[in-house]
Design brief:
8-stranded antiparallel β-barrel, signal, Lipocalin-like domain-containing protein, elongated, 1 helix
Length: 142
Protein backbone atom coordinates (compact mmCIF):
# COMPACT_ATOMS: atom_id res chain seq x y z
CA UNK A 1 0.00 0.00 0.00
CA UNK A 2 2.85 2.39 0.87
CA UNK A 3 4.52 1.75 -2.50
CA UNK A 4 1.28 2.57 -4.33
CA UNK A 5 0.88 5.78 -2.33
CA UNK A 6 4.50 6.70 -3.02
CA UNK A 7 4.10 6.07 -6.77
CA UNK A 8 0.85 8.04 -6.92
CA UNK A 9 2.44 10.94 -5.02
CA UNK A 10 5.45 10.92 -7.35
CA UNK A 11 3.19 10.88 -10.42
CA UNK A 12 1.15 13.83 -9.11
CA UNK A 13 4.29 15.85 -8.29
CA UNK A 14 5.77 15.11 -11.74
CA UNK A 15 2.49 16.13 -13.44
CA UNK A 16 2.26 19.37 -11.44
CA UNK A 17 5.90 20.25 -12.16
CA UNK A 18 5.45 19.61 -15.89
CA UNK A 19 2.28 21.70 -15.94
CA UNK A 20 4.00 24.61 -14.16
CA UNK A 21 6.93 24.48 -16.59
CA UNK A 22 4.57 24.55 -19.59
CA UNK A 23 2.72 27.58 -18.17
CA UNK A 24 5.99 29.46 -17.62
CA UNK A 25 6.99 28.81 -21.27
CA UNK A 26 4.01 30.80 -22.59
CA UNK A 27 5.53 33.55 -24.73
CA UNK A 28 4.86 37.14 -23.78
CA UNK A 29 3.50 38.74 -26.96
CA UNK A 30 2.48 42.11 -25.50
CA UNK A 31 3.78 44.92 -27.65
CA UNK A 32 3.76 46.25 -31.19
CA UNK A 33 4.20 44.03 -34.23
CA UNK A 34 4.51 45.32 -37.78
CA UNK A 35 4.72 43.85 -41.26
CA UNK A 36 3.04 43.29 -44.59
CA UNK A 37 -0.12 41.48 -45.61
CA UNK A 38 -0.45 39.85 -49.06
CA UNK A 39 -4.02 39.09 -50.07
CA UNK A 40 -6.24 37.51 -52.70
CA UNK A 41 -9.88 38.58 -52.81
CA UNK A 42 -13.10 37.47 -54.48
CA UNK A 43 -15.01 40.65 -55.35
CA UNK A 44 -18.78 40.13 -55.07
CA UNK A 45 -19.82 43.74 -55.76
CA UNK A 46 -18.68 46.56 -58.05
CA UNK A 47 -17.75 48.75 -55.09
CA UNK A 48 -17.10 47.96 -51.42
CA UNK A 49 -20.11 47.81 -49.11
CA UNK A 50 -18.31 47.88 -45.75
CA UNK A 51 -14.94 48.78 -44.34
CA UNK A 52 -11.89 46.75 -45.32
CA UNK A 53 -8.20 46.85 -44.57
CA UNK A 54 -7.46 46.13 -48.22
CA UNK A 55 -8.31 47.98 -51.43
CA UNK A 56 -11.21 46.69 -53.56
CA UNK A 57 -8.84 44.73 -55.78
CA UNK A 58 -8.35 41.02 -56.46
CA UNK A 59 -4.69 40.93 -55.37
CA UNK A 60 -2.46 43.21 -53.37
CA UNK A 61 -0.29 44.06 -50.39
CA UNK A 62 -0.83 46.40 -47.44
CA UNK A 63 1.20 47.33 -44.39
CA UNK A 64 -0.31 46.15 -41.11
CA UNK A 65 0.36 46.77 -37.42
CA UNK A 66 -0.83 44.59 -34.56
CA UNK A 67 -0.59 45.70 -30.96
CA UNK A 68 -1.25 43.22 -28.19
CA UNK A 69 -2.19 45.40 -25.23
CA UNK A 70 -3.25 42.77 -22.70
CA UNK A 71 -2.15 39.20 -22.04
CA UNK A 72 -3.58 36.94 -19.35
CA UNK A 73 -1.79 33.61 -19.58
CA UNK A 74 -2.60 32.25 -23.04
CA UNK A 75 -5.24 34.90 -23.81
CA UNK A 76 -4.48 38.11 -25.73
CA UNK A 77 -6.36 41.27 -26.61
CA UNK A 78 -5.34 44.08 -28.93
CA UNK A 79 -5.86 45.91 -32.21
CA UNK A 80 -5.03 45.39 -35.87
CA UNK A 81 -4.39 48.58 -37.86
CA UNK A 82 -3.81 49.48 -41.50
CA UNK A 83 -3.87 52.90 -43.15
CA UNK A 84 -7.61 52.41 -43.73
CA UNK A 85 -8.81 51.58 -40.18
CA UNK A 86 -8.31 49.75 -36.87
CA UNK A 87 -10.25 46.88 -35.36
CA UNK A 88 -10.16 44.87 -32.16
CA UNK A 89 -8.79 41.35 -32.00
CA UNK A 90 -8.51 38.55 -29.48
CA UNK A 91 -6.22 35.51 -29.59
CA UNK A 92 -5.34 32.38 -27.69
CA UNK A 93 -1.88 30.78 -27.63
CA UNK A 94 -2.10 27.02 -28.16
CA UNK A 95 -0.70 24.56 -25.60
CA UNK A 96 2.37 23.98 -27.78
CA UNK A 97 3.25 27.71 -27.32
CA UNK A 98 3.90 27.95 -31.09
CA UNK A 99 0.44 28.61 -32.59
CA UNK A 100 -2.08 31.41 -32.07
CA UNK A 101 -5.77 31.33 -32.99
CA UNK A 102 -7.37 34.73 -33.42
CA UNK A 103 -10.51 36.55 -34.43
CA UNK A 104 -11.01 40.20 -35.27
CA UNK A 105 -14.36 41.93 -35.72
CA UNK A 106 -15.26 39.95 -38.87
CA UNK A 107 -12.60 37.36 -39.66
CA UNK A 108 -10.42 34.59 -38.29
CA UNK A 109 -6.70 33.98 -38.51
CA UNK A 110 -4.12 31.51 -37.32
CA UNK A 111 -0.57 32.46 -36.47
CA UNK A 112 2.66 30.58 -36.04
CA UNK A 113 5.42 31.94 -33.83
CA UNK A 114 8.70 31.89 -35.73
CA UNK A 115 11.28 32.53 -33.06
CA UNK A 116 10.67 35.13 -30.34
CA UNK A 117 10.21 38.11 -32.64
CA UNK A 118 8.20 36.96 -35.67
CA UNK A 119 4.65 35.73 -36.29
CA UNK A 120 3.24 34.46 -39.59
CA UNK A 121 -0.57 34.76 -39.79
CA UNK A 122 -3.04 33.20 -42.26
CA UNK A 123 -6.31 35.14 -42.49
CA UNK A 124 -9.79 34.08 -43.68
CA UNK A 125 -12.66 36.51 -44.07
CA UNK A 126 -16.07 36.36 -45.75
CA UNK A 127 -18.53 39.29 -46.01
CA UNK A 128 -21.39 40.25 -48.31
CA UNK A 129 -19.12 42.15 -50.73
CA UNK A 130 -15.92 40.04 -50.69
CA UNK A 131 -14.10 36.94 -49.53
CA UNK A 132 -10.41 37.18 -48.75
CA UNK A 133 -7.41 35.10 -47.75
CA UNK A 134 -4.09 36.57 -46.80
CA UNK A 135 -0.72 35.88 -45.28
CA UNK A 136 0.95 38.36 -42.92
CA UNK A 137 4.50 38.28 -41.63
CA UNK A 138 4.91 40.46 -38.54
CA UNK A 139 8.07 41.36 -36.63
CA UNK A 140 8.11 42.64 -33.06
CA UNK A 141 9.12 46.28 -32.76
CA UNK A 142 11.19 47.36 -29.81
Amino acid sequence: MNKMLLRTSFALIAFAATNCLAESDIPNLVGKWTGEKEFAKILKTESPVGRSHTPHEEFGKVNVDVEFTTQKGRLLKGTKTTEKWSERLVCVIDYDNKWLYCTDENGMFDGQLVGKDEIVFHYHHVTSDNSIVSVMKLAKRE
